[in-house]
TrEMBL record:
MF (Gene Ontology): peptidase activity
GO terms of biological process kind: proteolysis
Annotated organism of origin: Actinomadura rayongensis
Pfam name, any one: VanY
InterPro entries: DD-CPase-like, VanY-like_core_dom, Zn_M74/Hedgehog-like
Coiled coil: 33-81, 138-190
Keyword entries, A-Z: Coiled coil
Domain D-alanyl-D-alanine carboxypeptidase-like core: 232-338
Keyword Cytoplasm: no
Protein name per its UniProtKB record: Peptidase M15
Keyword Coiled coil belongs to the record: yes
Length: 350
């Protein structure tokens, strides 16, 4: 059976392809994209709730299976005890069959002297007490064995039913995710949404806070958003701001911005630092590794060009700017960053 956790991740990530940040309220008629985004967010919420229930059910089933194993161990021990006492029980039954004469106080009326009769009676009473103890012990073992056998059978039956339910929930969760993805994607296609809006909808700004908690250059793919430029990514808040910057740039120059770099993994930082240490940050300190920096081409890399001048005049409106250090130490007109204060506070990363 597939693990619930694997099913959970599959379900949530499938729907994440078409969900974004919570929608805002539009004046007048609601934007169809906002309605779609809200439905996708609700779908994600429903899947996450179902995932939590599934994980709890799996946890309960695991505990029940452990209890079953313990019960079976106790049952095996009870069977061993019962087998151990079957020998004395067989001997007792055989003796009772072979010696059918009077026992206990009735032996006083048998042959021999009164003293011998009393002594024989005492011996017989002692043997009878031992016999009763053996019989009582055997009865306790048998009752214990029966109780444990009944408990084990009940646990096995309930666990089999629960296992089936868990399997059904996993399949239902996967099916629900697939159905939601198809439905939402169909709705999105009908709206004739351009690439810009598709990117905005697939980039969940709510993941930005979590993205900041990961070490520099080690942000998992889940917490990065793709850019219009192929194979380029940024942290969600930086990516959403870049979409707007890129759209404004495209309106001005008729094409998307040209990028040579964006998020940079730790391995990539190490490779670049080995090639040109004077023009790259020490690995693990790069703003590229935080997912909040881009290196731009297409004219912006030339200070004084129309593209560079436009970026200087407009980038801060979208949360981007050219850091002070990049004007001189070293000189990098192509490097732009997201999220720092507008006063151009310096950093350590080229």
């Amino acid at each position: 059976m597939p693990t619930p956790r694997a099913a959970v991740l599959t379900a949530v990530f499938l729907v994440m392809a078409v969900i974004g940040a919570p929608p805002g309220r539009a004046a007048g008629r609601e934007d169809p994209l906002d309605a779609l985004r809200r439905q996708a967010a609700q779908a994600r919420s429903d899947l996450e709730a179902a995932t939590a229930r599934l994980q709890q059910r799996q946890k309960d089933l695991t505990a029940s299976q452990a209890k079953l194993q313990d019960t079976l161990r106790q049952l095996a021990a009870a069977e061993t005890d019962l087998n151990r006492i079957r020998g004395p029980l067989a001997s007792l039954a055989n003796a009772s069959y072979q010696q059918q004469n009077a026992v206990g106080a009735l032996s006083v009326f048998g042959g021999g002297t009164p003293e011998q009769a009393l002594r024989s009676s005492a011996d017989v009473d002692h043997l009878a007490a031992d016999q009763r103890r053996v019989i009582d012990e055997a009865g306790q073992y048998e009752r214990r064995r029966a109780q444990l056998a009944s408990a084990a059978q009940d646990l096995q039956s309930r666990n089999a039913v629960e296992q089936t339910k868990v399997q059904q929930q996993v399949e239902q969760l996967k099916q629900k995710s697939a159905d939601l993805t198809r439905r939402l994607t169909t709705m999105l296609n009908k709206l004739d949404v351009n690439d810009q809006r598709r990117l905005e909808m697939s980039c969940d700004k709510g993941l930005a806070a979590k993205a900041r908690t990961f070490p520099n250059g080690l942000i998992p793919d889940k917490y990065l958003c793709p850019l219009p430029q192929k194979n380029r990514e940024l942290r969600p808040d930086a990516a959403l701001a870049f979409y707007k910057l890129n759209a404004a740039y495209k309106r001005r120059f008729g094409r998307n911005m040209c990028l040579t770099d964006s998020y940079r993994s730790l391995a990539e930082q190490q490779r670049i630092y080995a090639q040109r240490p004077a023009f790259a940050a020490v690995p693990g300190t790069s703003n590229h590794g935080k997912g909040q920096a881009v290196d731009v081409c297409g004219g912006v890399q030339n200070q004084g060009s129309p593209q560079f001048n436009w970026m200087e005049a407009n980038s801060r409106r979208f949360g981007w700017f050219h850091p002070a250090w990049a004007y001189s130490n070293p000189f990098e007109p192509w490097h732009w960053e997201f999220g720092r204060s507008a006063n151009g506070s310096t950093g350590t990363e080229p």
